[in-house]
Amino acid sequence: MKLSARNQLKGTIVDIKPGATTTHVRIDIGGGQVLTASITNEAADEMKLTAGKPAYAIIKASSVMVGVD
């Protein structure tokens, strides 16, 4: 797989929660960090996602916000 996005974080799927139209996929990327992605149910089905399967969190954003207390 080759992508233009530079933020590719390899990890392991730890949880999959299908909803009415989207599926939330949680990926453990190590160091106690877990990312959650919301993808279509169709995409989740096509990729045959299962807990324990290696996966990449690929992040491509047009903006990043920062907040502080």
From TrEMBL:
<dbReference type="GO" id="GO:0015689">
    <property type="term" value="P:molybdate ion transport"/>
</dbReference>
<protein>
    <submittedName>
        <fullName>Transporter</fullName>
    </submittedName>
</protein>
<dbReference type="InterPro" id="IPR005116">
    <property type="entry name" value="Transp-assoc_OB_typ1"/>
</dbReference>
<dbReference type="InterPro" id="IPR004606">
    <property type="entry name" value="Mop_domain"/>
</dbReference>
<dbReference type="InterPro" id="IPR008995">
    <property type="entry name" value="Mo/tungstate-bd_C_term_dom"/>
</dbReference>
<dbReference type="Pfam" id="PF03459">
    <property type="entry name" value="TOBE"/>
</dbReference>
<keyword id="KW-0500">Molybdenum</keyword>
<feature type="domain" description="Mop">
    <location>
        <begin position="2"/>
        <end position="68"/>
    </location>
</feature>
